């Protein structure tokens, strides 16, 4: 599974680090949405939007976005985070507006960097590029 994230977003970087820490079986790899590799993989899967308002999850050759992606990611992590998956029963029209509200305000609330996350040597193998 591959998680595509906004590489200049502080909240997104913190989320990636959070996921890595709780992904005991190393199920996820990561790539920034801005990277050449990220764009190439997404285009191959017919997702070539230039907007970076969501995590994108590629799982079993299918693209998931917004709250669905976040909940599918949570399902693969350790307890208690795994328990968040119960919210998948809520319809997307309820879940996604909450997700998008945070997403649209993330730079204002958490800030933005000039460049993408540079992984440490310990986690470098988890990043595509």
Fold topology:
Elements: E1 2-5, H1 10-22, E2 29-32, H2 36-44, E3 56-59, E4 62-65, H3 66-75, H4 92-110
Parallel strand pairs: 1-2
Antiparallel strand pairs: 1-3, 3-4
Question: Can you tell me about this structure?
Answer:
The chain is of the alpha+beta class and 129 residues long. 40% of the residues lie in helices and 12% in strands. It contains four helices and four strands. The chain has helices at residues 10-22, 36-44, 66-75, 92-110; strands at residues 2-5, 29-32, 56-59, 62-65. The chain has a four-stranded mixed β-sheet with strand order 2-1-3-4, with helices on both faces. Helix 1 links the parallel strand 1 (2-5) and strand 2 (29-32). The longest helix has 19 residues, at 92-110. The radius of gyration is 14 Å and the shape is globular. The chain starts with a strand and ends in a 19-residue tail after the last helix. 24% of the residues are buried.
| Count of strand segments | 4
Q: SS-based structural class?
A: alpha+beta
Helical fraction: 25-40%
Order of helices and strands: EHEHEEHH
Biggest sheet, strands in spatial order? 2-1-3-4
The number of helical elements comes to 4
Evaluate the radius of gyration. 14 Å
Can I get a quick summary?
The chain has 129 residues and is an alpha+beta fold.
Question: Keyphrases for this structure?
Answer:
alpha+beta; 4-stranded mixed β-sheet; 40% helix; 12% strand; globular; 129 residues
């Amino acid at each position: 599974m591959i998680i595509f994230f906004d590489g200049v977003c502080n909240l997104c970087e913190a989320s990636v680090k959070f996921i890595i820490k709780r992904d005991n079986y190393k199920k996820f790899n990561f790539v920034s949405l801005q990277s050449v590799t990220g764009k190439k993989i997404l285009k191959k899967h017919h997702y070539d939007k230039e907007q970076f308002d969501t995590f994108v999850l590629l799982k079993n050759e299918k693209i998931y976005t917004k709250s669905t992606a976040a909940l599918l990611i949570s399902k693969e992590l350790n307890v208690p985070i795994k328990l968040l998956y119960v919210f998948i029963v809520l319809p997307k029209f309820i879940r996604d507006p909450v997700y998008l509200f945070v997403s649209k305000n993330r730079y204002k609330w958490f800030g933005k960097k000039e460049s993408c996350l540079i992984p440490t040597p310990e986690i470098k193998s988890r990043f595509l590029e």
